[in-house]
Amino acid sequence: VDEFQDTNKIQYLIVKALASVHRNILAVGDEDQSIYGWRGANYSNIFDFIKDFDATVFKLTQNYRSTGKILKAANNIIKNNTARLPKELWTENDEGVRVEKYVAIDELTEADYVVNNINGLLRHRNYSCSDIAILVRLNALTRVFEEKLLYYNIPYTVFGGVRFYDRKEIKDILAYLRIIANPSDNEAVLRAINTPRRGIGDKAVAQLVGFCNAEGKSLTETIRRLDGDILLPKPLINKLQGFSDILNDIFDKESTASLEDLFDYIVERSGLKDEYAEDTEENNGRRMNISEFRSSVREFCQNSTDASLNAYLESVTLMSDIDSFDEENNHATIATIHSVKGLEFKVVFIVGMDESIFPMQREGTSDSDVEEERRLAYVAVTRAKERLYLTRASSRFLYGTRRYLMQSRFFAEVGDEKKSSGIEALTASGVNIIKPTDFQRIKEHDPRLKIVGTVVMHKKFGSGRILNVSGTGENMMIEVDFQTGGRKVLTLSYAPLEVIV
C-alpha cells in the first residue's frame, strides 16, 4: 500500500482483513505528510499498522531534492509535532543559499517583494518562469500576486484552480456591477437573476427572454418595470418580483453611493452574503475571495484618479482578458499547498505566513488541526529544491477591515540565519530588486528622495508622493503613491525619479 498516510479508517480495515491470514504486507507512508484530514485521511493508520502487524519500520530519510538549508528549515518545523515517528531528513546535496524570511508592511508590499525577487531571478540568475512557484494556504491570497505578475508581464498559471477574477463568487458579484454600469447587458442579468437561487427556473427565464425579444426591450428594463405596463403573465411577475426589487434597490443606491459602498450593498442586498454564511471549508474560502475582491475595489478607489464603476470594470476586464501563458508554456505557478503535494520547483515562495491564515484557525480549531497545518507547512517547504522564501504581512485587509496580524508560529519555527526586512536578502544572494523597464544603475540621487512627503516624477508612473523610506545605503527602499500607478515600492539606487517639490 502506497501513500499510507492518506488512507481512511475503512480502507485500513479492508487492508487489515486482506492481510489477516498471511500477514504478508508492506505499507509505504509518511505521517509528516498527512494533509488530507479534512477529507477523511487518518495518519494514525500508520501507528495502528505497526502495532497490529508488529511491523518492522524502515526510515527512508535521505532527501534527493532539496538543499541542506531547506531541509533544516523543514526539520525545524515538523519536529514541533507530537504525533509522529521521530526522524530527520538529510541530504548529500549542497547546503545551498539561506532560506529568506521577509516581513512586509501589508499585502501589497509583500506581493511587491515576491514579484520583484522573481523578476531578479529571471533576469540575473538564469531561472525560467516554470522553475518558480508561489504557494498559498488560502486561495483568496492569489489576487495581489496575479495582478503583480501581470503588471510585470510574467506569465503564470493558477495550478489546480482558476484565476481570481474567473472564480464563481467573483463573477457573480461582477454580474451585478455590470448590470448597473450597462443595463442592456443581458448576459449579466441572466447570471444574476437566480444567483443566489430565488426560484426563477429555466422555463421562467425562457418566457422572460422571449417576451423581451418580441418587445425589443432589455431584460433589465422589463424586470425593473414589473409594476408598470409590462404585459407578462401574473405567475411570472410573481416569480420575478423579488429580483425586481433587488435591482431597483441597487440602482437607487448607486445614485448616491461610492463604489466601495455600492459593492458592500450589492453583496448584502443580493443575498450573496447569506449564501456563504454557513461555516464550512468551502464557504470560508468563498467569503475570503469576496473579501479580497472588496480589497481590490478599495485599492482601485485609493489609487485611481477615476474611481468610477466603469473605470473599475475596465481594469478588471483588462486583467481577466490578458493571456497569462506564453507559447512554450513557460509560466510561473501560483497554487494552494494542497494542490502541489508531489511536485517540486527550483524556487518556492510560501506567502501569507500569519497566524489565522497559516495556520488557518477558526472557532473550534483543535491541537490536532494545528498539527495538520504544521504538516502542510512541512510539505510546502519540501517542494523547494534550491531557493526558499517565506513571507508575511504585518497587516492585511480582511473581511472589510485592516487587521494587524501576528507572525505564523511556523514562520518562527524555521529559525533565523538572518531575517530580512527588505532588499538585504536579495543583495546577499546576489539579486537586486530592479524595475523591468530600467536596468541602468543611478549612481547619484537627490537627497530629497529620502524625505517622506517629497513629490516626485517617474517616467512610467507619473507624479507621486513618497510615503515611506526604509533601509540604508544601496539597500534603501522608498514607497511612493503615484497618481496613475498606485503605491509602488522602489529601490532608490535604481528608481528613475525626479524631485518636483
Explain this structure.
By secondary structure, this protein is of the alpha/beta class. It is built from 17 helices and 13 strands. It has helices spanning 9-18, 44-52, 68-78, 107-124, 142-151, 168-181, 186-192, 202-215, 219-224, 234-254, 259-269, 272-275, 281-303, 309-321, 367-381, 409-413, 424-428; strands at residues 100-104, 132-136, 156-158, 332-336, 345-350, 384-393, 395-398, 401-404, 455-458, 462-470, 477-482, 486-491, 497-499. The strands form three sheets. Strands 1-6-5-2-4-3 form a six-stranded parallel sheet. A five-stranded antiparallel sheet has the order 12-11-10-9-13. Helix 3 (68-78) packs antiparallel against helix 15. The radius of gyration is 27 Å and the shape is flat. The chain starts with 8 loop residues before the first helix and ends with a strand. The model is unreliable at 419-439 (pLDDT under 50).
